[in-house]
């Protein structure tokens, strides 16, 4: 049986039927805390799909996919294997087409997959309705959060409103996690280049500026990224030291 993720009821009390804006605000705050507590973009998206099932009224499953202009789609987070099957398309049937509309619209709803054109992949897996919400978009690709239900007509205006509020938080958390990851990688790259520069200074008996210039020239000559060349030098140096011990 596919593994399902369950959001503790204490996180989202009565989340399937909010009685007012105060309860909704509390649920969104709880979701935002969990989203911003993630360490990487991938963990942010994994957390988002789990939270979506508990937060969006009627949602039973959820997934996040990346779509490109060529119509290709890749599922990057999901609560159930059937979600990945939907995105890949059922053999012999067309892939779901509702995602393509998200290039023009921030939200697309499938009321009943058994009666709507392009809904065959959902219907084949017992998913009758869907709510697709755009998370991020640029000229080349879309990132989309979609929630699913086995019942038709589940995602009404209220569910759409909550979904859009939730995806706003997801987008912010995803952007924050991406920036943190980029900064961490930049610091790692700087340290790696610094180590490689030091190794060349010692080997070639040159100063830091000359060592860095030598590294840059070698990177251009070999058509290799500076970071990758630096890693190669550091790894080779460490291997030599280990062999000598």
From TrEMBL:
UniProt xrefs under PROSITE patterns: ANTAR
Entry superkingdom: Bacteria
Keyword flag Zinc: no
Entry keyword set: Kinase, Transcription, Transcription regulation, Transferase
Family annotation (SMART domains): ANTAR (SM01012), GAF (SM00065)
Domain ANTAR: from-to ranges: 173-234
Name the record gives this protein: GAF and ANTAR domain-containing protein
